[in-house]
């Protein structure tokens, strides 16, 4: 649990049991509901021992994992984990719809409506709004965690794979060429490029081997453009057979493989740009920032036996020896936005068809508030906690972690936390038993 002093400055996090004792004794009050933060009324930072914590950030296109952990001789102890779910696709769709509406207005003989692109120049460091959204979301949570915890450093994945190393293995000498991470970098790149499925039969969810499109025995090289992924049966069936002979009866598959093999990863440039911008934003905070690659993170997970999740990836970013423990549950924060300024809803052609209420607040609540509803009787009888959607009729909907409950009267609601643009849920982390025998963790068998 996060703890702040009487002046809202961060202290060392504590266990849930200690937080309950502090609240029961009256020494602490609830500072924030989600994530849960308590405030000590009789303690200041100057009178406390604050060892500090570190952050691990695993940025992604749709999901970003953030872990708060304590480090002791490169052995990490996970304290808190959050999975940030972005809405970049929604941002892109809304911008495309707005552009279509504007284009329609310009085509209706409105010659005075000048195109916007003729007199605007993109500044240096500009990112598309859907990409900027991912950076801003991650930075928002890093800044929040810095307010609630004594963060002393940040570990972040700056690149998912080292493309320069893969194309030119001699860039750093023999040790860099045949280092421990070389195979992991190539495999991560191929998994992302070929969609984590067999290039020949399309099967997914099975062990995949790296296959040479042109076999080594026939003069093929180890360049990434000559590598693909194949399941074990396809890999053994193809062997050293030329790919045009192996796929003679499937010309469409052959054409797709030849076309995709020469193409770079479609969104590699966009993801690299986003991660670079995130690294620059983190460096601007003044905190020490350690960068790593996705291949190194995967290698760390294999060493500790941890499963593949976004939050566990964040816990394994950078240089580590072992992981002592990790949180049993994670918080999932889904970006929802704060609504829109428009007071009308448009049809498919851009004409207003529905009037929205003038005020966002109804009976003291607004859409997105975190509330608790205690219904004494009826079909919705029970206790419901979640995100509310208000209605002018006074009967609201509440979305919990597992269902949508509709038509609850406003008098049954109690406000827990004002809307902040996020929807919060709690999920169980994939379990593994960190055993420090030989400083290597082992997976839990369920």
UniProtKB/TrEMBL annotation:
Keyword terms: Endonuclease, Hydrolase, Nuclease
Keyword Nuclease in annotation: yes
Domain spans labelled HNH nuclease: 185-236
InterPro entries linked to this entry: HNH, HNH_nuc, NA-targeting_endonuclease, RNA-guided_IscB-like, RRXRR_dom
Pfam annotation, one family: HNH
Domain of life where this protein originates: Bacteria
The protein's name in its UniProt record: HNH endonuclease
Organism of origin: Micromonospora viridifaciens
Species lineage: Bacteria, Bacillati, Actinomycetota, Actinomycetes, Micromonosporales
